[in-house]
Amino acid sequence: MLNFLNNSGKNEADNGSYNNTNIPVTLQQGLSLSPYMNVDPSYLPINQPEFIFPDGAVKQRGRFELAFGQIGAACIIGAGIGGATGLYRGIKATSIAGETGKLRRTQLINHVMKGGANMANSLGVITIMYTCAGMGITWIRGTDDSFNTVGAAAASAALFRSAAGVRKAGFAAAIAAGVATIYSVWNNGGFSSQRVREWNTYRS
């Protein structure tokens, strides 16, 4: 423990002076030694990683860990979009019907709640399908990359629209695969010239 008392026993920490010469204030490397912490900065790792991972561990969250946030975000976004759409439709419908006062307010609330619930439910179900498909493809292939993202998006869209027929399911899968491809390219560095050169080198 540091001693802030001088030889006469008077505490001089309050007046800003420190006369204890028993503790060195400089090191051989020229680094300062804090008289309050008594820690040698040369022993502190500077270039070491901030987190310690076990051997063989992946330094990013997996699809299962990301699923909860993705599902919640999809439901919130769906509720917002559906609520706004329902409000627009409610205003239009009540204006045509000539409703006013409490009746119109009740109809607007019903449209907002119905539209928000339907859209939140739809996006939440699609996200659950996407997450399950992504985890399944990752388990089958043994790796997690952009191909899993594109495949999971196409599979979830096709499954969600399967009740409407094969043609519409295939069309939805194509759109979802295209959007997932654009996202994967953007997430991996975009269409920069350096990235294009890397692709050409990989293809050759």
Automatic annotation (TrEMBL):
<keyword id="KW-1133">Transmembrane helix</keyword>
<dbReference type="InterPro" id="IPR045238">
    <property type="entry name" value="Tim23-like"/>
</dbReference>
<keyword id="KW-0812">Transmembrane</keyword>
<dbReference type="GO" id="GO:0005744">
    <property type="term" value="C:TIM23 mitochondrial import inner membrane translocase complex"/>
</dbReference>
<dbReference type="Pfam" id="PF02466">
    <property type="entry name" value="Tim17"/>
</dbReference>
<protein>
    <submittedName>
        <fullName>Mitochondrial import inner membrane translocase subunit Tim23 isoform X1</fullName>
    </submittedName>
</protein>
<dbReference type="GO" id="GO:0030150">
    <property type="term" value="P:protein import into mitochondrial matrix"/>
</dbReference>
<keyword id="KW-0472">Membrane</keyword>
<dbReference type="GO" id="GO:0008320">
    <property type="term" value="F:protein transmembrane transporter activity"/>
</dbReference>
<feature type="transmembrane region" description="Helical">
    <location>
        <begin position="169"/>
        <end position="186"/>
    </location>
</feature>
